[in-house]
Request: fold
Amino acid sequence: MDQIMDYLEPACQEIFEIPGFTERMAAIRERVRPGLGALSRRLAEELEKGGEPVFPHVASHMRRRVNPPNETWLALGPGKRGYKAFGHMGVFIGRGGCSVRFVVKDEAVAARERLGRFLQEDAGARKWFSREKELRDFGAVHGSGEIGPVFSREIGETGERLVRLKSASLDIGWPVAFETTVDDIVERVERLMPLYRAANGS
Reply:
């Protein structure tokens, strides 16, 4: 079975140490984005076999002009044209290595509020978080490309915050090795499906 390293060279995390904006962006475009594109299509195919159609997207960082990104990613979401307005899953590459995560951004208003109500009101949410004890809180490191601390927030309070605060977001998941197989990534993505479905109303 193919592994992440079959698509991405392990040394690609060193790209995020390149100091200049132009130089780092060029390296991301040349050495990371093609592999993420191929991996995203592969993951979408596997998930579709399980009955969950998702659309793959690779981050372009088009809004950036000065500060180079500390990580880049592929996203899997329910929208053909983009992913930021939805809760989405993804594989992220940054200074800390590789991770598989679920993200709902503050700008995804409807998804953020749906997820917040799910975390506040649904007993299944508490049960899900009680099972997933190794989750990391990548929101705590604010896009630094580093591995976040263990997720330890109270679930109901997290849900209330997502509903109430326009600036609230959620970014959680697991660090994974470059030797991780595509099957293992699919398994982790499928574990995130309760949050994905709750956020996207499916």
Notes: The beta strands are 55-58, 71-77, 88-94, 97-104, 136-137, 170-176. The radius of gyration is 16 Å. The longest strand covers residues 97-104. The chain has a mean pLDDT of 93.
